[in-house]
From TrEMBL, chain A:
Top-level taxon of origin: Bacteria
Keywords, comma-separated and alphabetical: ATP-binding, Nucleotide-binding, Transport
GO MF annotations in UniProt: ATP binding; ATP hydrolysis activity
Name of this protein: ATP-binding cassette domain-containing protein
Automatic annotation (TrEMBL), chain B:
Keyword line: Membrane, Transmembrane, Transmembrane helix
Protein's organism: Pontibacter burrus
Protein name as catalogued: ABC transporter permease
Keyword Membrane: yes
Transmembrane segments: 14-32, 39-61, 81-103
Domain of life, per lineage: Bacteria
């Protein structure tokens, strides 16, 4: 399977008179999970939206395999984004959403016959539990032929059993996709990530061992004792 | 074809906000117009393409703003959605205009 590389470079984002992101560089390759940590308001979601291409910003340079893209989401098969809150229309049943998203019968079948989706196909998104909904959303995006997936708080507010199920899903697709994950459930992010990056003071800092998270004041000293 | 279905879906979502406003404007327009039915069609068409359309985009953004990512993940931008919805409304207005011509031919 060919390897692909996503690079987000020279990202500057100003909010009011404050520079939230100052000359950010972040990269991800297929087969890799990059964990992006940061405190509330540090700009994690903003950074993901800038990479996706939906957030206008003062300066950015997004490259996939060396080719620059102004709005990567407009190019099919490049990048998909799982936002913090559900993005599925609440007036469509799940089977209808699958039909709208995929024309290929094999992709439709893969989701429709998935053991955890099958019982819910006739339901509306708001009839699912938060874990079921998050799982379905992820399953939907994973079936797309994109090279990179940006996951904004995929584990937020869901029960541990679904956290493990989501991790299983990511592992299944790791050979063909790269993931950038941000979540406040830092122990899970640290556990599953090949690389961890901390977004602090507007810059990305590589974390080589979890104790550095204490040094940067992201977690309390008791977290690793 | 797949994109067209998504455009139509977004258009239907906007219509849920747009139609009540446009109907209200058309009823008022009919009441103040000398030619009742023409006033109704004119008011409805104009509102569908202007004030009610702007309001529907605004209210959709307020209530379902997150759902724009449903379309973004299929490569469709917000601007494309809004332009497509406007064009579909314009087609509707043209049909109403033709209907008006037939009515008074």
């Amino acid at each position: 399977m060919p390897e692909h590389k996503l690079e987000a470079d020279s990202i500057i984002y100003n909010i009011a008179n404050r520079q939230l992101l100052t000359d950010i560089y972040l990269s991800c390759e297929t087969g890799e999970i990059v964990g992006l940590l940061g405190r509330n308001g540090s700009g994690k979601s903003t950074l993901l939206r800038i990479i996706f291409g939906t957030q206008p910003t003062a300066n950015k340079h997004i490259r996939v395999n060396g080719t620059a893209y102004q709005a990567p989401y407009k190019h099919r098969n490049l990048v998909a984004y799982l936002p913090q809150h559900s993005f599925l229309p609440d007036n469509l049943r799940l089977h209808k959403i699958i039909e709208l998203y995929f024309q290929e019968p094999d992709k439709r079948k893969a989701i429709q016959e998935h053991e955890r989706t099958k019982p819910h196909l006739n339901k509306f998104p708001d009839e699912l539990s938060k874990g079921e909904l998050r799982y379905f959303e992820l399953l939907l995006l994973l079936q797309k032929d994109v090279k990179f997936l940006l996951l904004d708080e995929p584990f937020s507010g869901i029960e541990p059993i679904y956290t493990d199920r989501i991790l299983e899903l990511l592992e299944e697709h790791l050979s063909t996709k790269g993931f950038i994950i941000t979540d406040h459930n830092y122990s899970t992010v640290v556990r599953i990530s090949d690389r961890v990056v901390l977004l602090t003071d507007g810059a990305c800092r590589s974390i080589n061992n979890p104790e550095e998270l204490v040094e940067y004041g992201y977690v309390p000293a008791s977290a690793f004792s | 074809m797949q994109k067209l279905k998504l455009y139509l879906h977004y258009h239907r979502r906007l219509l849920a906000f747009n139609l009540p406003f446009s109907l209200l404007v058309s009823v008022v327009s009919m009441a103040i117009s000398a030619k009742g039915m023409i006033g109704l069609i004119n008011g409805f068409s104009l509102s569908l393409l202007t004030g009610s359309f702007v309001l529907s985009v605004y209210f959709y953004g307020q209530r379902y703003g997150q759902q724009y990512y449903f379309y973004h993940n299929m490569g469709i931008s917000k601007q494309e959605l809004i332009v497509s919805a406007f064009l579909l409304n314009a087609m509707l207005a043209v049909l109403l205009f033709c209907f008006k011509l037939c009515l008074y031919a």
